[in-house]
Fold NRT1 PTR family.
Amino acid sequence: MLFLGLYLVALGVGGIKGSLPSHGAEQFDENTPRGRKQRSTFFNYFVFCLSCGALFAVTLVVWIEDNKGWEWGFGISTLTILLSIPIFFGGSTFYRNKIPNGSPLTTIFKVLVAAMLNSCMARSPSNAIESMATSPSPTPPSKQEGSIENHDKVEETYESPSRSLKFLNRAVVNIPAFDALKCSVQQVEDVKIVIKILPIFICTFMLNCCLAQLSTFSVQQAATMNTKLGSLKVPPASLPVFPVIFIMILAPLYDHLIIPFARRVTKSETGITHLQRIGVGLVLSIVAMAVAALVEIKRKRVAANSGLLDSTKPLPISFFWIALQYLFLGSADLFTLAGLLEFFFTEAPVSMRSLATSLSWASLAMGYYLSTVIVSIVNNVTGDSKHKPWLSGRNLNHYHLERFYWLMCALSTLNFLHYLFWAVRYKYRSKGSNK
């Protein structure tokens, strides 16, 4: 029953986080500078609201679970979700709703399969050229691919395939291998757009891998330190409150101070581009891992000087030192998550926006999986008959956690260079993104 409940929670959260960003952003008119600025503000405050919920979870709910029992914590969370449902439906008469029209995954799969099968079919060059020119172009998305009610946005349509990713142009033929695989030029171009944003998506895995350390090794570090705040003893499980608080402070500052200043300096609508914002987040993650390594060196030095290397007693060093790495990682999360959500929404085709914004959460999941893989590889490579693995020992004081953090710093630096390779080559297609 417990695992069934966890799977249902994952299903529900996936549905909410996957659709809410695109639904909220579609309420603004992207044909006007004012609407695009409001949309950018929405993404900032979406992350802010996520942090508010996280603050409630890691403080009040954790305290209730520790003092009253887990059933109280789960009960309060369930009640909160139930209360949110009528509030959401209360505004349903004012929403701009996108008319659903098929699955974007079906379109992507159809184009890829059609391109592969058609490339294997024997056809004359003249037929291939003719098919690209005569294949029917789709109607505007307001009629075919789903529209926003009461919204006159018309997405760009294509008469012939572009020259980028030319292998996908083979999906456009007059006589496909199967009738079900008949693709329009618009569908092919939409799939090309999604493929072009995938390298940016992949480059964020490493950042989320660093974020995974907040809920694992960083909590273990703090558990060995002095967690008293006056007469109050802070539970180690509540330590993620630091990045949450930092995000809640930085999000309004970013939206109301940093971005207006950047707009005056750069004379651009967005202040800084979406890719620049993501890049800032990646740089902050590098700094965070370097800070984490230095803090761990200090923590172990205090343990050695105090003669507590083999003891489980709290070390005479405040857990506020851990807040430094939380500060940089929290800032990195704000810049990257909000930047990714807006980047995917503005660059993706209208019919694939929900799918594209969901990539932000898929990146988070991949980062946690990658963290598990890296930890396993590090332990297997560094452990032998003479040496213990870096991340193994009688207690955390015998780990070589500082080496692991330096490794993460190096990997994050390489990942940033990889990101720069793709970012400088990317050409925006949306209004205001690079103005």
